[in-house]
């Protein structure tokens, strides 16, 4: 019989263990990519090897990634995680505290401050919880050992080492989410390198800094999918709709991109609550607001810009509803 203390030690050892990822079969590919594509010299490659030796395999992170609530919960259970009185009140206070920077970001990128704040509220509770896991461990575990998404996380591990080299940061130091996301608005390394901005003009980009996180989040929503495909200044996000006819079985709902236009959806029997131009890209959002009862919305381009942040309908809708509540200035 295993003693209680020894049993606990074995469980911990199995969930978090030294892996020496420098000996992994794909480690050579990673190092060669850093050498040939990103011009890592001998010293930088050796530092990378040392970081891989130090990396820990944390199996629970894979489980967390595969069982994220926006993938596995119902809408009526998921929504209160983000849209709740405390998150609304804290979001309103956060916007007031940093009003000048939110206004500057909206003037530059066209993204309302409440939307940027809502993303931070959903991601890290406005910076109160940016994640306890070493990014090195998160990305090494998932980049080398994830059962289905190894290519994605392996690329992010490469980008992480490049980011650390560019910022002069020890790869063992930064902490974040189980998936390897960082800062107040939880950027993956590739997006940190591509879309983060120095919004406070300090000379470096720091997504744990509120100003840089505000500007970077707005920049992300506008530019993630390329020119003209991101956030559109002054346009609505999603509009409630009444379905006046039976929806065809072939009609697509909750897609990652607009699957139709407003005019086409109107001809299917969807009646938006406000007038919309027929040629606007659009999609059908169907949400079970309680067991057996579905509400419909017409999602517009700005809704799909939110989905570029996290490609789940539940996530984008909860951010939208949180932003509306923050912007209302009503008591939650």
Automatic annotation (TrEMBL):
Residues 1-19 form the signal peptide. InterPro entries: Lysozyme-like_dom_sf, Lytic_transglycosylase_MltB, MltB-like, SLT_2. Keywords: Signal. One of its GO terms (molecular function) is peptidoglycan lytic transglycosylase activity. This is Lytic murein transglycosylase B. The keyword Signal applies. The keyword Signal applies. It comes from Abyssibacter profundi. GO terms for biological process: peptidoglycan catabolic process. Residues 47-324 form the Transglycosylase SLT domain. The gene is mltB. It holds the Pfam family SLT_2. The active site is at 123. NCBIfam families: MltB (TIGR02282).
């Amino acid at each position: 019989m295993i003693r209680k203390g020894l049993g606990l030690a074995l469980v911990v050892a199995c969930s978090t263990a030294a892996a020496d990822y420098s000996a992994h079969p794909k480690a050579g590919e990673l190092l060669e990519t850093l050498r040939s594509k990103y011009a890592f010299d001998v010293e930088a490659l050796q530092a990378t090897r040392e970081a891989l030796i130090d990396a820990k395999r944390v199996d629970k992170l894979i489980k967390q990634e595969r069982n994220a609530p926006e993938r596995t919960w119902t809408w009526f259970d998921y929504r209160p995680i983000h849209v709740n009185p405390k998150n609304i009140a804290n979001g309103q206070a956060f916007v007031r505290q940093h009003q000048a920077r939110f206004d500057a970001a909206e003037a530059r990128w066209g993204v309302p401050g409440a939307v940027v704040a809502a993303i931070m509220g959903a991601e890290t509770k406005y910076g109160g919880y940016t994640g306890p896991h070493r990014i090195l461990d998160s990305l090494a575990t998932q980049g080398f050992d994830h059962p289905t998404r190894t290519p994605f996380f392996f690329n992010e591990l490469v980008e992480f080492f490049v980011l650390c080299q560019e910022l002069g940061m020890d790869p063992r130091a930064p902490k974040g989410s189980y998936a390897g996301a960082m800062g107040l608005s939880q950027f993956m390394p590739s997006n940190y390198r591509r879309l983060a901005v120095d919004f406070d003009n300090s000379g470096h980009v720091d997504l744990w800094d509120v100003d840089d996180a505000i500007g970077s989040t707005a920049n992300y929503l506008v530019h993630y999918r390329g020119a003209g495909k991101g956030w559109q200044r002054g346009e609505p996000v999603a509009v409630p709709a009444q379905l006046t006819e039976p929806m065809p079985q072939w009609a697509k709902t909750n897609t990652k991109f607009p699957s139709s236009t407003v005019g086409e959806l109107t001809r299917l029997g969807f009646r938006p609550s406000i007038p919309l131009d027929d040629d606007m890209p659009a999609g059908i959002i169907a949400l079970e607001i309680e067991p057996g009862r579905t509400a419909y919305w017409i999602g517009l381009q700005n809704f799909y810009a939110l989905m570029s942040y996290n490609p789940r309908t539940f996530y984008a809708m909860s951010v939208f509803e949180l932003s509306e509540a923050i912007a209302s200035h009503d008591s939650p």
